[in-house]
Amino acid sequence: MGKLQLHHYLPAKRLREQLLSVAPLLPVGMVLAVRGEDRYLGGWGERAELLTTDDRSTLELPLTLEGIPIGRLVWHTPLEQTELIEQWARHLVTVCQGLMEVEHARRAVTSEALESFREIALLERASSVLNRSLRPREVGDALLGELTSRARTIRWGAVFLYNVDPGNYSLLNIFGEDAEPLFLAFADTPLFKGYVEGQITGILNDTRSHPLHTGGETLFRAILGLPLEAHNERVAILFLAADHVDAFVSADLKRTTALTSMAATALRNAQMFEAETQMFRAFISMMASAIDAKSPYTAGHCRRVPEIARMLTRAACESTDPPFQDFSFSEDDWETLEIATYLHDCGKVVTPEWVVDKPTKLSTNFDRIDMVELRILLMMAQEELAILKGQTGVAEVAQQKPFMDDLKFLKECNLGKEFISAENEARLRTLATFTWRDAKGEEQPLLTAEELTNLLIRRGTLNAQERQIIEDHVVHTINMLNSIPFPPRLRNVVEYAGGHHECMNGKGYPNRLTDTTLSVPARIVAIADIFEALTAPDRPYRLPYTLSKTLDIMFRMSKEGHIDPELFGLFLRSGIYQRYADHYLKPSQIDAVDIRPYLLTPLD
Predict the structure, then answer these.
(1) CA angle at residue 68 from 67 to 70, to 5 degrees?
(2) Do 58 and 75 form a contact (C-beta atoms < 8 A)?
(3) 88-144 per-position pLDDT tens digit
(4) Model's pTM, two decimal places?
(5) Which of 253, 370, 469, 505 is the 20 to 30 A CA-CA neighbour of 218?
(6) Do 459 and 419 form a contact (C-beta atoms < 8 A)?
(7) Sign of the CA dihedral running 237, 242, 244, 247
(8) What angle do CA 191, 195, 197 make, to 5 degrees?
(9) Mean pLDDT in the chain?
């Protein structure tokens, strides 16, 4: 509190009103004055402003506030001093004292109301700042920012986070020049231990005079330390420090206590959110591992796609080319992309393994080409038995089918490596008419209708129904992710993950989206998924493609509207394909590549 001044508590207007009211009672020739320590406030009589106590005929009574003299009533009368005049003077002093106390009370109430308003405003602003983030480091930074923004005496500040399992403290936030080494050194002192164990709390305005000070030199001459506790649990401890003694006052402690109480809750919430986030990320990683482990042929796919997507997204953020100059990613966007890429194939957990891994056209739980081979061998045995029994004439024996050639042909068709020509289709249909006799002597077809349908697959190993099952994994992915109550900041996970089989031309699946509805991150995930799949070394139906063949295929896909040509160009110009290949591909896959023909604009 500042020095009390009489003119602050005894308004001149009110003083004049009181003097005028008693003027008729004053003796003739009487002069009086009311004075503060450094000024004249008012009076009555001729030349009252010059009245002092130097004259022996001048008398005075003190004016006090809270027991402290802050002024005086001085009077002089030419008449002999009488008891009545002194009583009158004391009465005037009492009136003045009453005016002063009323004004003092008014000021106190106003000051208290103003202080309360300031505290409410401080807490409201601090609440907004401290709860703006759910990241512990940002909460700590916000706390130090609030405390140091208006306090000139604070030179250093730090927040030490309490680690429950080891039961120790780690430096979370710092403020001030060379703060880190100073606080790390302070953390090894008995003073720090005293604050941690509760032997010291609040303000220590002379560190070197405290019994726990061991005599070592420190720049911290004054410290304000408070624990941050929420729900009766220690969360952290705050230290503010100055380089001179008596740097902190009770107002600093009051303000700091209010902020640390709020910060403790915010920091605890941030820690709980961080723990839940880590648990959720561990769950995502476990899901990705489960998806990859479901099939030995796609192991690692859900872990390699995120890497390609991160590289391409970073290139898009850094690019100044017109298609990407306004593209940027926030921290929440990066987390969204990570979750989406790890879980983009989560729907495969409900897809039958024999479909996902189908290496040949006749594969289900096993490769049925072995059954076809047994039938052919049985046909051959039955034919030989008929010859031995004389049931087949010489002419018929001469016309016996070259069964082993047919078996070789069927095995080659089963692999699905080449397109089925019209000639081979006709031969398959002819072979389907061959018969063999079962144990009951009944004729059975060499190929069932379902087997013939599979062997007639023109490309790959999947028939239409199986391909639909594969495509449905995206629907399952979307449905599974939609069942997760993602917070608003992660609202785009489903869109990024569910669009990796959509095409720019609207011919993708499952929703036939186009370039007008596909976001840039969804297009990035599509490119990452395709590039990884084409170069993957573990697919059952083909050998892994070389780098040049992969880029040839993707270039055609970009020209035909399957993938974004601008992103594909960025994928090439940024060298992502080469960096990924050097790290993940087999040396036999990494061949020489000239990317210039692929680019929309020539390289300089």
Answers:
(1) 135
(2) yes
(3) 788 888 888 888 888 888 887 776 665 555 555 444 555 555 666 678 888 888 888
(4) 0.63
(5) 253
(6) yes
(7) negative
(8) 110
(9) 84
Distance CA 259, CA 125 (A): 10
- Strand ranges (DSSP E) for 8-117? 31-36, 40-44, 58-65, 68-76
The three-point CA angle 593-594-596 to 5° equals 145
Q: Which helix (H) or strand (E) holds 439?
A: none
Rounded CA-CA distance 92/76 in Å is: 14
Segment holding 203, helix H or strand E: strand 202-204
3-state DSSP assignment of residue 241: strand
Is the bond preceding residue 510 a cis peptide, omega within 30 degrees? yes
Q: Is the dihedral of CA 568, 573, 574, 576 positive or negative?
A: positive
The pair of three-digit structure tokens given for residue 294, joined into one six-digit string: 């479901």
Q: In the chain, what are the domains?
A: 6-110 (3.30.450.40), 131-276 (3.30.450.40), 297-342+485-598 (1.10.3210.10), 369-461 (no CATH)
**What average pLDDT does the segment 147-162 reach?**
85
Cα–Cα distance measured from residue 402 to residue 488, given in angstroms and rounded to the nearest whole number = 68
Cα–Cα distances (Å) from 24 to 20, 30, 84, 418, in that order, read 8, 11, 15, 127
Q: What angle do CA 327, 333, 338 make, to 5 degrees?
A: 120
Asked if residue 514 has pLDDT above 90, the reply is yes
How far is 161 from 145, CA to CA, in rounded Å? 17
Under a CB-based contact definition with an 8 Å cutoff, are residues 157 and 291 in contact?
Answer: no
306-322: b (≥16 Cβ within 10 Å) or e: bbbbbbbbebbeebeee
Where does the pLDDT of residue 395 fall: very low under 50, low under 70, confident under 90, or very high at 90 and above?
A: very low
Identify whether the C-beta of residue 451 lies closer than 8 Å to the C-beta of residue 442: no
Alpha-carbon distance of 347 to 516, in angstroms, equals 26
- Confidence category of residue 242, pLDDT binned at 50, 70, 90: very high
The residues with which 202 forms a beta bridge, in sequence order, are: 225
Q: Give the C-alpha distances (Å, rounded to integers) separating 47 from 33, 81, 85, 391, 495.
A: 9, 20, 20, 159, 91
Question: Cα separation of 571 and 310, whole Å?
Answer: 12
The answer to whether 301 touches 536, Cβ cutoff 8 Å, is yes
